[in-house]
Design goal:
By secondary structure, this protein is α+β, with helices and mostly antiparallel strands. It is 56% helix and 16% strand.
Length: 697
């Protein structure tokens, strides 16, 4: 194959690909290293934390056992001290002073001694009497031999002082809790109190009291020892772990009992809530943020001090192994830094290796690029020969086949130009045909719109025609019925007048008894009732236009509402008026119009026997004033709604069935119309349209 001169463009691409591959390899290595180091650090941190936490917890438990044994040893020592006969002798000598006195005299004696004791100076005869005997000397010797004991003294079974190593704060001790618990009504018991400041010894101390028994085992007195906390737990000061590890003893409230350099009970180990959460931690180890004045986080392991006397008193002590977290996790940090150094070294070695490898990978690709440049310039005789044994070799074979196919399928420039011109002509014809199709579609769409509009208008006219036809049928029915009713009314009215007149004449006869007179009154009243019905029939058959004149609809309706408002309120029915302002006048007889409104409102009230709301609206609708009367009553079904204007049709028990028929006649006489809309259980709405007065149109 002919040697191809490399172009500057090709060299630029080669350098770019090599750098990209090198960068990719390095980034991949960095990502893997980052994941590995992070996972290793996290797992190592957790493993070290768990291992050291469990190990330190065991140490804290051992320290708690040591504290418990230390306390037990001091209690045993006190028991040994009080078994010496010299103390019992001192107690018997003390009791001899008030042996022959009764209880009241003994109490008086103790009150006097208490007062004298408090006022007495340490070198006074009263005080030295109890500090210079054999028992007192032995007690003082205990305090010198055992620095733990800050103060020790004994009392008799009445609570009076018998001997002391130093002056106590009080002479009489039987009123103190420690004495009562230790004496235990003569049964005797060991007492341990809360750590507190002792005024006599001026030490923060732990009070311990034990019973003193004679040879028969009977309790003859009580011994109290005040243990100096600073000396008692001094052995904890010598415990160290690493550079920063030390031990802390705290009570259940979180106050420090013992800590190197801290006064007992002067500081908290940590916050109150934080301490409660800490001691309830089931792992018994954790990391605290800046506890008891430390500026750094501390790795804490702890255990409870278990001693039966402390548990009986409800006292809880905790031993804490306190070590800086930075020191605990220092091995992990060192390992992390070393791993970073190893990764950095590997990256430095990987960079040249990756660059060399990328050059080997890019070389056949660049050959393909150079041949593609030649083919792109129109030279289809070039071939590429690569023997890489991978996908690049397959790509070179495919490239050679593509060059051969291109060489066989090349056409002349003229034939291509003719084909392009022919295609443009076809595209123009298609464009014109498409424009015609779009125009036809627009015309058809317009025709469909016109057809829909015509259909809607026809449907509207058909509905109006049906309504008009229904009104004509109703008018014809009413006219025929009205003529028949008028004839019947004239025929019935004359006999009724005769019957009524005769009944009135008969009532003037004083000889008629009470029962007959009562019957005549009934005849007269029923004749008047029948006369009223006949008047309604005549009004229905020949509705009069009355005195039609300009009428203010709002004002007329308001008069009816005020008239009925009180009566309706008794039945829990409320009339709500919502008038449109500035309505034009209509032409109607005011009395007849008010009769229509009153009839419709009464019907609405009758439809609401339990009470409800009646809403009366007025509005302007075209050339008509519209009145709406809406109730919240029981409503009507479609069958009932179709018959409401028929004479003598009623749903009331005592109704005549003429009210709505008369209303229909009055509204029709005013050239208006009336309609009802109703649904069962959803109320009824009456709609009235009255034409506007001609001068106001």
């Amino acid at each position: 194959m002919e040697k191809i001169t490399k172009k500057p463009r090709a060299a630029k691409r080669k350098t770019g690909i090599r750098y990209k591959i090198t960068l990719f390899i390095c980034l991949a290595a960095l990502a893997i290293a980052f994941i590995g180091i992070s996972s290793g650090y996290f797992l190592g941190y957790n493993l070290l934390s768990s291992t050291i936490g469990k190990y330190n917890k065991l140490i804290a438990q051992n320290l708690a056992v040591s504290v418990s044994e230390l306390l037990e040893q001091n209690i045993r020592n006190i028991f040994v001290y009080v078994t010496e006969p010299v103390h019992r002798e001192a107690i018997l000598a003390s009791e001899a002073k008030y042996k022959d006195k009764d209880r009241a005299e003994i109490e008086t004696y103790f009150l006097q001694m208490d007062k004298q004791w408090v006022e007495a100076k340490p070198n006074s005869p009263l005080v030295t009497e109890y500090m210079r005997g054999k028992s007192a000397e032995r007690l003082e010797k205990y305090t010198l031999l055992h620095k733990t004991i800050a103060e020790i003294f004994t009392t008799d079974k009445f609570g009076g002082l018998s001997a002391a190593s130093s002056k106590t704060s009080d002479f009489y001790q039987a009123d103190e809790e420690w004495w009562q618990k230790a004496y235990n009504s003569g049964k005797g018991a060991v007492y341990i109190g809360d750590i507190e400041y002792d005024e006599s010894s001026e030490k923060t101390a732990l009070p311990v009291a034990v019973p003193i028994r004679d040879e028969k085992g009977e309790v003859v007195g009580v011994c109290k020892a005040v243990l100096d906390v600073g000396v008692l737990f001094e052995s904890l000061k010598n415990f160290k772990m690493g550079k920063t590890g030390h031990t802390v003893l705290a009570d259940n409230n979180g106050f420090i009992i013992f800590h190197r350099g801290i006064t007992p009970l002067s500081e908290r180990f940590c916050g109150e809530k934080e301490f409660k959460s800490l001691v309830n931690n089931p792992k018994k180890w954790t990391i605290l943020k800046n506890p008891h004045g430390h500026k750094k986080d501390e790795f804490i392991s702890f255990a409870a001090v278990e001693h039966p006397l402390l548990a009986e008193k409800g006292i809880n002590w905790w031993t804490f192994l306190d070590e800086e977290a930075q020191e605990v996790f220092l091995p992990v940090k060192i390992l992390f830094v070393q791993m970073i150094g190893v990764v950095g070294t590997l990256i430095i070695i990987l960079l040249p290796v990756a660059f060399i490898f990328s050059g080997i990978l890019v070389k056949p690709i660049m050959k393909l690029y150079e041949v593609a440049e030649c083919v792109g310039r129109g030279d289809l005789d070039y071939r590429i020969d690569l023997k890489t044994g991978d996908e690049i070799e397959s790509l070179a074979i495919a490239f050679n086949k593509m060059t051969e196919n291109l060489k066989r399928t090349v056409v002349s420039r003229d034939s291509l130009s003719e084909e392009v011109a022919e295609r443009r002509k076809v595209e123009q014809n298609l464009s014109q045909a498409l424009k015609k199709a779009v125009r036809s579609r627009e015309i058809m769409t317009s025709m469909l719109d016109d057809n829909n509009r015509v259909r809607e208008e026809l449907e509207s006219k058909l509905q109006e025609l049906k309504k008009t036809q229904s009104m004509l049928v109703q008018s014809e029915k009413l006219a025929s019925l009205g003529k028949l009713v008028a004839d019947m009314a004239h025929e019935v009215n004359n006999p009724l007048m005769i019957i009524s007149g005769n009944a009135q004449l008969s009532l003037l006869d004083e000889s008629i008894n009470g029962e007959v007179k009562n019957n005549l009154n009934i005849i007269h009243e029923e004749c008047n009732r029948a006369k009223s019905i006949i008047q309604r029939l005549l009004m229905f058959s020949r509705p009069s236009k009355g005195e039609q004149k300009a009428l203010d609809v709002n004002k007329s309706i308001e008069s009816v509402a005020k008239l009925l408002e009180h009566q309706f309120s008794l039945g829990n029915v409320k009339i709500d008026i919502q008038f449109a302002e500035g309505l034009p006048f209509v032409v109607a007889d005011e009395k007849q119009f008010q009769e229509v409104i009153m009839n419709l409102v009464n019907n609405a009230r009758d439809a609401m026997p339990q009470g409800g709301n009646i809403v009366i609206n007025t509005s302007l609708e075209g050339e008509y004033v519209k009145i709406e009367i809406k109730d919240s009553g029981s409503g009507m079904d479609d069958k009932t709604l179709a018959k409401i204007f028929e004479p003598f049709f009623t749903t009331k028990e005592k109704g005549t069935g003429l009210g709505l028929a008369v209303c229909y006649g009055i509204i029709k006489a005013c050239k208006g119309r009336i309609e009802f809309k109703s649904q069962p259980q959803k109320g009824t709405t009456a709609h009235i349209w009255l034409p506007i007065k001609a001068e106001e149109k």
